Amino acid sequence: MKHLQTFDTGKQAQPVEAALSKSQESSRKKDVGPRVVTKLEFWRRRRVLERVGCSSTTLHRWVKDEFFPAPIKIGGITRWRSTDVDGWMQRMSDDAEAA
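Above: the chain's sequence. Below: its structure in token form.
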């Protein structure tokens, strides 16, 4: 028995396999350009401080005020996803250029 999935289009449910094959066909027709693959790293506080260029106290305050991405705990060690830090830095740069 195949599983059915309803899409937001309001159309009748269709097999997931059919939906996937249709979307794969349409994506092949479009030129989406090269794919960018980002390697996910987890950085300790020292690396984040070096990358962002602020003090430990400032970083703590920014996280507390939800201005900077919150860290995660891995094996009891505080770490930040590199993509979160780089994304935050890009947004800050974009905001500065827009101002």
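The radius of gyration is 21 Å.
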